[in-house]
Amino acid sequence: MENPLRLKGHTLIALAAIVILAILYATDQVVPASSAREAQLRIWLAARACGITALVLLTAQVVLGLVLSHPTNQSTWKLSKRLFPWHENLFVFTVSFVAVHVVFLVLDPYAGVGIGGALVPGLSSYRTVPVAVGVVALYALVFTGLTARYPKRLPTGWWLKIHRFSLVVLVAAWLHGVLSGTDTQSFLPIYVAIGVALIGTAGYRYWVVRRARGALRAPLHPSSGGIEP
Ligand code: HEM
Question: Does ligand 1 have an atom closer than 6 angstroms to the CB of 184?
């Protein structure tokens, strides 16, 4: 049976439009700025605010994915029904914030990125390598998200192998933020919290999986009652 909480195409587009309009309104881009300097500052501030929001949303999405795939969730916690719609629908918000992040940086003549730097890794004159890492992270994010949404278009099981790559996407986006951002110093607690959340949840999940595999592989001692002597 189809999940009633699963958002459909037109709802996703409407939500993305609302997010973009809310950002435009909140940053006063709709109302003209009173001076050229104010207008330039606003667009730059909005770009950075959207970057950090996208990173936090992406972290939430990856952490939820790790909880969903945790062996103890399948056996004990049983949170999948409640958490899955969040994990799935966060994608559209993450991508919307990244899109606004990129559009504002392209529109900002002082950012030194330009349309080429935003689309092709290595073409940004501002912090070439860290920005290139962001561009690659964006393409990888869209790829991992879309392949998970349309798994039947791929050979069986491929979407999950690709989906696990989301961990690398988050690490790349994190590195990009730390190395290219103006606010790295002030955002340090957020970057540390993201690192701790990722290492904590991924470490716990893979440790439990390894332990279960180890227990299956270990020869049973006769005294454990597992096999007949
Ligand atoms: C997964 C995708 C992305 C995420 C999560 C992300 C996130 C971030 C974050 C958190 C910052 C730091 C903001 C600050 O310190 O003020 C940042 C800065 C930056 N990002 Fe991205 N970004 C992504 C993709 C991109 C792409 C595709 C571009 C290409 C235009 C880009 C260009 C930049 C630039 C130029 C800065 C420096 C802004 C400044 O502080 O002056 N980002 N990004």
Answer: yes
Ligand 1 center to 49 CA (angstroms): 9
- CA–CA distance, 3 with 134 (Å, rounded to integer): 33
Buried residues in 19-47 as b, exposed as e (16+ CB within 10 A):
bbeebeeebebeeeeeeeeeebebbbebb
pLDDT digits (tens, 9 = 90+) for 22-71: 677 666 666 667 777 777 788 888 899 999 999 999 999 999 999 999 99
Atom from ligand 1 closest to the CA of residue 141: 1
Residue/partner pairs of 61-66 with CB below 8 Å, 24 or more apart = 61/87, 61/90, 61/91, 61/94, 61/166, 62/166, 62/167, 62/170, 62/198, 63/197, 63/198, 63/201, 64/90, 65/163, 65/166, 66/201, 66/202, 66/205
Its pTM stands at 0.86
